[in-house]
Amino acid sequence: MSKQYTDELKAIVVELYKSGKPASEIMREYGLTSSTFYKWTKAKAELAVDGQVVTTEEVRRLKKQLAQLSLENDILDRLH
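Request: output the structure for the sequence above.
Response:
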């Protein structure tokens, strides 16, 4: 059975990891599997792009939005 975790808990776990707390300790304390823990930390990994910091989660969302807008533009182009 899959557990549902709040965004607040995910943020706490990621911040603890970023602050230097060992991953094994965090996983044990919060009862997380390694796959869940590393999925969260990967999603919140920060990238510097043109002087701005974005998370991989934001990049994924923006790529999805770009694909949707490109599709909409293609449809509009075909109508003209």
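Residues 7-79 form one domain.
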